Amino acid sequence: MPEYTAEATGVSTIKLLEAIRQNKIDAKFYQASTSELFGGLPETAPQSEKTPFHPRSPYAAAKLYSYWITVNYREAYDMFACNGILFNHESPRRGEDFVTRKITIAVAKICAGLQEKLSLGNLDAKRDWGFAKDYVEGQWLILQQKKPDDFVLAMGETHTVREFVEAAFEEVGKKIIWRGAGVEEKGYCAETGKLLVDVNPKYFRPAEVDLLLGDPSKAQKVLGWQRKVSFRELVKIMIQADLKTYGR
C-alpha cells in the first residue's frame, strides 16, 4: 500500500514536528528511523551514520523523508529532534507478518500439529537481528543526551533467513537438511525426512534488500550502549513464547 505508507510513515512526521513547533512545546522528538534506508546493497556494508541512503521500497522512501525532515527541523528551529536508525529488532511482540515471527509461529504450530510446513521467500537475505528490549534502551539513551543527534543501533553481525530457520527448529530439537537450489530449495527434518520448509516466489520482493549489517560504534562510544542478548538467545526467547501460545 505505497500511498498509505507515504501518508502514515512520511507525512505523519511533519505533522508532529509542526505541532511541536507551532505550539512551542518543550519536547524531545524521537523519529523511529530504519536500516531499510540503506537499501542493503553489499558494497555499502557495514552501514553507519555516514553511509549513503538508497531506499528500495515505498516504506524506505517514506522513512527517508521522515529522517531528513527531522534533521531539517533540528537545524532550522533548534528543536531537540533526533533519529534512531535501528536495524531489525525482534521480540515475541513482533507482528506476525514479519519473517522472524512467521518462522517462530510456524515452528510452534508444526510442533503442535497445527501446521504442516513453513513457506518463505528469499532464504539468502541477510539481516542484522537483535532483541527489541536492547534497542528500546538505546532509544532512551539517545533522548538523554544534551544535544540531539542521529545514531545507528545494530548488533554488528548478520545472519541469513536460512540461519534463522535452522536456529528456530534447533530450539525444538529438529535439524534441517536442505536440498535443491533457488525456488526449488526445500528443508527436511533430518530425523524423519518430512518436508518442513519450502520456497514460494510470491514472497520475493520486487527490489530485494540483500544485506543489512549495521555499525553501532558511534552509539557504543557516545551513548555507552551495548547489546545484551545474542542472536541465538533472541531466537530462543521468541520460540519459547510461541510454543507457550500454541502449545507444544
Task: Describe the secondary structure blueprint for this structure.
Elements: H1 2-22, E1 28-34, H2 58-77, E2 80-86, E3 89-90, H3 99-111, E4 118-120, E5 126-127, E6 130-131, H4 132-143, E7 151-153, E8 159-160, H5 161-170, E9 176-179, E10 186-189, E11 195-199, H6 217-223, H7 231-246
Short structural summary:
By secondary structure, the chain is of the alpha/beta class.
Please supply descriptive tags for the structure shown above:
248 residues, alpha/beta, four-stranded mixed beta sheet, 11 strands, 40% helix
Could you please describe the fold and organization of this structure?
- This protein has 7 helices and 11 strands.
- It is an alpha/beta fold.
- The longest helix is centred in the N-terminal third of the chain and has 21 residues.
- The model has no long low-confidence stretch (mean pLDDT 95).
- It is elongated and about 65 Å long.
Computed over alpha carbons, the radius of gyration is: 20 Å
Apparent shape: elongated
Would you report the number of β strands? 11
Specify the structural class: alpha/beta
